[in-house]
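ok here's Small ribosomal subunit biogenesis GTPase RsgA:
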Amino acid sequence: MEDRILKLNEYSALNQPAASGLTLARVSATSHQQYTVITTAGSFAAVVAGRFANLALGPEDFPTVGDWVQVRLPQTPTDVAVIERLNPRQTVFLRKAAGRAAQAQLVAANIDWLLVCMALDANYNVARLERYLAIAAASGAQAAVVLTKKDRASDLTAQLTAVQAVAAAAPVFVCDATKRDGIAALQQWLTPQATYALIGSSGVGKSTLINLLLGTQTIATQAVRAQDAHGRHTTTARQFLRLPNGSMVIDTPGMRELGLIQADVAQTFDDIQTLAQQCRFRDCTHTKEPGCAVQAAIAAGALPAARLASYQQLQQEQAQNQALRGKARENAKIKRMFGSKKQMHAMIKAAKHRRR
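and the structure:
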């Protein structure tokens, strides 16, 4: 394992230096607010300081895999380190947590490249890929598409054409785990010292792909259901690994759903954005307005109607979730400062009364 652990002294110069008494570390694994951090002194189990937890308004205020943190090291290596500070993030990938509440769930931070994985079997879904790319675009990291299970493709040429159409400038790699050189192109493309995070649905083969990149069976894998290619959550906690070529890779749990909170829909659908500039009306909704360039492109066969539907759905979903998230964070702030809205109003009323 030591040959895959990040050598912190190669990267610490790029980060905010640690305060007096603290040590710079990078989070290598998380599970239920239990952390593993890597420092120049080795690897330690860690928890966040009480003050750190008290100031947090939501899950995104806590560390995640890939974060640079400042820790207070224990006197003995078997004891727990305490995370005192979180360094500013360069990039962060987050999604809406499962359920009705618009609460954010951190996936990974300080990533150079997000590798969006999609299988070419029954898991293949271009609309889902558009969703992943929209969130990836907002993360600050660059995105690449990794198509797995080439041996199970129903129509590789058509599938690849459709993926390249929505991927735009993002690199696209096709992998086949059944062949010795099935991931050669991806291996050659990975850059030493860069950080990559693999994201995608359960069952797309992320763990298998990482094992091939590592050259060992480090991560457990499971079979998927034959009828729909849905997989089990083989990876249940995020983890940070160093590849033989010096690249860092983050394995993330498979996602059954990917709710939008922070997404760049405009960048992902820049073809629609460009067409919209030619519409007769600036506030065109691209539905029934006369002179709509987007609808004209659909009628001419230049733009799939399904792509416009996906664009409109993601725009609406993002707006709704961002509003709910903002309200949730404001309520959390009020609760931390006053205990409840009722107590806040009582304190405001009392302050007004004293000023009379």
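+1. Residues 1-6, 220-226, 228-236 have pLDDT under 50 and may be disordered.
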